[in-house]
Structure formats: C-alpha cells, structure tokens
C-alpha cells in the first residue's frame, strides 16, 4: 500500500479540470490538479475574447477566464501543480500516476480532463494570427465577422457545418479544399453548395496567412498546376479535424469510434471503475468551454458518489470479516 492515497487526481486544467477541482474541493476531497507543465489553463489560454461564457455580459479574455477558474479552485483548497502526467496505471482500485518531474502519486479516483487538440495547417502566420482572424471555432468566433469576407479550410462535415454557420454573419465564405470533391456527407455537401454566400476553391491549399496584427490575406497554391495566388479575407477558420488527447490512456479505457473517451450515458464513468472523464476529451461534437465546465461538474459529482459507495463497501467488508479467535489458536 503506498504511503499516501489521495481521493482524486484531476489530469488537465481547462474548464473541465478546474470545474471538477472547484466541486471536489468544496466536497472536501482535497483534489490534486495536474495542470500541465507549459499548458496550464488549456485551450482558452490561446484565444482573446470569449463572449459566450455565461456571467460575463461584456465578454472576457480567455486567459483571464482561466486564471479566475484557477483562483476559484485554489480558494477551496485544490492543490494545483504545473506538472504533466507522463504515465497512468488505472486498472487497480488504487490508481498510480507518474509525474514528468519524477515521482508518483496514488489516488482512489482519477478524472481525465486532457482536452482535444484542433489540427493546425502548420503554415506561416497561422499561429501568430490565432485569435486575430485565425480561428478553429465558428460557434465561438463567427459573430466577430459580421459582413466580412472569410474563408474556411476543410472538406468534411464539420467544415461544411462551420461554413454554413458562418454565412449567418459573413458576406461571403470561401471554402478552400485540397481535393476536387468533398469528404462531407451528401446532405451537408448539397446544403453548402446550394448556399449562395459560399464559394468553393478546389484543389487548393493555404500556404501562408498574412496580416499586420490581423488577418488580411491568404497565399494559396493550386495543387494541380502549382500556381500561387492571394485571396483577400479578414478571417480564416481551420476545420480539418481535432485529436482528443487520449495517448496516455488509450490502451486502458474504452474509446468511441471518433477516438474520444467512451462514457456511460450522461455520466462521466469510463470503462474502468474509479476513472472518470470530462470535457472535450469525451466530446466529439459540442466542444465549448461551457459544455466542458458542465462536464467537469458531472465528473466531480460522479467521483463523490463513487468514493462514498466504495467507502460503504469497504466498511461492510471489514464488518463481515470473521474474527480470529486467538485463544482457540
Ligand atoms: C483558439 C480557440 C478559441 C476558442 N474560443 C472559444 C470560445 O470563445 N468559447 C468557447 O466556449 N469555447 C472556445 N473554444 C473551445 C474551448 O477552448 C474548449 O472547448 C475547452 O477549452 C475544452 O475544455 P477542456 O477542459 O475539455 O480542455 P482544454 O481546455 O483543452 O484543457 C485540457 C488541459 O489538459 C492538459 N493536459 C493534457 N494532457 C495532460 C497531461 N498528460 N498532464 C497534465 N495536463 C495535461 C492540457 O495541457 C490542457 O491544459 C476555443 C478553442 C480554441 C482552440
């Protein structure tokens, strides 16, 4: 038996991890949050205005929102460490977590809140102009592009969904795709093709995003004849997929066909007892700060219930253990 066994360890420090920390800390479970060595705060640390998180009528900067969540979790005693989990052993009743800095922690329960990484184009200008015209989320940022000309990169269902959603705001939406046909389902492709605000640019890739502090043009390359051209736009939405961060535990908990962690119904319970998931790592569809936060709350409440149930079971087993009559030998 390890020297110290914690009630709960939370891996990840986005809205899901910090919300789970607030709830478990307020339930006196003394959570430890492994926040990541360089990525504490999660995806919202990479953005500017967040206008759709309830409670902030004027909007809030992404990093400010995350620092507030962190402060709120600390206020109730969450032990937040800027550490990476580098290995997890999740199948036994006592879970073991190896830390990037060395050492191991043990806990009765673990919440996996490691998020999901949006795929990037990997071209010059993309990172620098992220939050300044480059976006990965139409639901989050579409509103900022009212009456503007913008582009979406991608050819799947989510690219079509993003493009169609963006037509509510933008005056024109270019869809730039590497091939001459879409991967999207027929119904989504038909809808996008029928929308008069959408224009397709086929067989083409973006090779650079340019702008002085804000996106103003894209450099494009035609993949059939190699010609290069520029396209004037004020926004670029990258919709080429996302990768749930499951590498650490993909061989231990069940995953869905989309690669997200499989949970039971509306709970956060994974295929392993005592292991719970929250946020974008289990969500193939909604992926919003508020849905991640809600999911962190669910995981915390499930952990509370699990720990109470296992404590009851342990007590009942201890009660039933036959006493050894020493005198009888
Ligand atoms: C540029 C951008 C702008 C966005 N804007 C909005 C918006 O305006 N409104 C909105 O609602 N949503 C927005 N989103 C989406 C939102 O950020 C996500 O839905 C939300 O952050 C998901 O929360 P999460 O807690 O599940 O994961 P994340 O925020 O991704 O956090 C996961 C955390 O886990 C950590 N982690 C991963 N592996 C380990 C490990 N092994 N050890 C320790 N830590 C680990 C990561 O480093 C990270 O800190 C935006 C996303 C992006 C990329």
From TrEMBL:
The keyword Transport does not apply. Its EC number is 1.8.1.9. The keyword Oxidoreductase applies. One of its GO terms (molecular function) is thioredoxin-disulfide reductase (NADPH) activity. It comes from the Bacteria. Binds 1 FAD per subunit. GO terms for biological process: removal of superoxide radicals. Keywords: Disulfide bond, FAD, Flavoprotein, NADP, Oxidoreductase, Redox-active center. Its cofactor is FAD. Residues 6-296 form the FAD/NAD(P)-binding domain. Pfam families: Pyr_redox_2. It catalyses: [thioredoxin]-dithiol + NADP(+) = [thioredoxin]-disulfide + NADPH + H(+). GO terms for cellular component: cytoplasm. Homodimer. PANTHER family: THIOREDOXIN REDUCTASE 1-RELATED-RELATED. Belongs to the class-II pyridine nucleotide-disulfide oxidoreductase family. This is Thioredoxin reductase. It comes from Nesterenkonia salmonea. The lineage of its organism: Bacteria, Bacillati, Actinomycetota, Actinomycetes, Micrococcales.
